[in-house]
Amino acid sequence: MSFRNDFVWGQATSAYQIEGAAFQDGKGWDIWDVFCKEEGKVFEGHSGDVACDHYHRFREDVALMKKMGVQGYRFSINWSRVFPNGTGTVNEKGLKFYHELVDELCAANIEPYITLYHWELPYELYKKGGWMNREIVEWFSDYAAFIAKEFSDKVTHFFTVNEPQCFIGLGYMTGVHAPGLKVPVRDTFLMAHHVLMAHGMAVKKMRQTAKRDILIGIAPTGSMSYPDTERPEDIEAARMHLMQVNPDLQNWTWNVTWWSDPIFRGEYPEDGLRLYKDYLPTMTPEDMKLISQPIDFYGQNIYNGNRIRMGKDGKPEVVKRYDGFPKTALGWPVTPECLYWGPYFLYERYQSPIYITENGLSCHDTVSSDGKVHDQNRIDFLEGYLKQLKHASEDGVDIRGYFHWSLMDNFEWHSGYADRFGMIYVDYRTQERIIKDSGYWYEKVIRENGEFL
Ligand code: FCB
Q: Is the pTM for the entire model greater than 0.85?
């Protein structure tokens, strides 16, 4: 089998990055609204105030997706648009927007995949301690349960949180992302534990409030590891490298197992418990039981990886990249192998169906004199990556779908609008959309279920 017959070819976005209408129709402030107003935090003072104005143009955007033959659309709900204070009163206008979006998608035969938390923490909850406050387990799960109740008759697939590695690591350790803090390492472990418990409690309550059976997963991220050669020792080195926690305490969030082992195996990885022991909060067996609620699939955002070989000392070592190694506009390395070996190792360890919930690149896209956007770089990149994914599927990895990041150019967090990740070009002066060459290419990939790759 190459790609499964029911493989889902999708696009991904997130609320803050595309919606705009940041202060309209009763939406509450989220931590990104606050962060973007701070001088010097985001490239040239950009913000998501208007973004792609998707809030007003979603019908046009759904029509463009339809034109590209897209089968699934992963988007996030901005918590503070539905609950301006994070808890309590519902903002009906905000809720209506998501209902209309979902209805528009269903009418276009595009399956909605909802992410509940793509970093839009309501500012009111931040003021109460946000992820530091254990009550967030209730705050988040109540919100999640409400969304499941509202949408479960039309939506089957839900993701709890997107990339905890990022929102804790960049939000609270380097401070590059909202809320822009550098807190003691101890606090970040407490927050991480709360994130995982909030995830577990959300899964539990969503299954109770949903009107019919729904499928729930999570979407973590991380740099993947792939072997230098196919010799067993290099494969083992890559496996060890991917599945070890990060010994650098200031960057500890960048690892797979601290986040995924508790969910899928009910325990934190042993190497982490040893290395991080001086910084850990109390973690009870009841907590672990909550965190390890059975879920239905594993979402993974994959952008790149490291080439690994077995060192003479029996430890994995990173192979230095050659001079002039290919990179994206953002400077990220181009490493297609990560889309074979990433899913391969994750499936081996967690035995859960996998969705690639994000993958893509930023390019220096421009509109050419013929009015088109010729992003051959993106096509080449995706072709290389998707070939590897197909190969993984052929080798028995249970891959259910692929969501390209991103549907359209958007607000790339602290880089503002400087980076273009979309298959649709957005002219932010006029909000004009242009499907890039890659979008037409992707339409063919979808039509042929990736057979020509
Ligand atoms: C991921 C984020 C997504 C986007 C891409 C480029 O880390 O989940 O919002 O910014 O990177």
A: yes
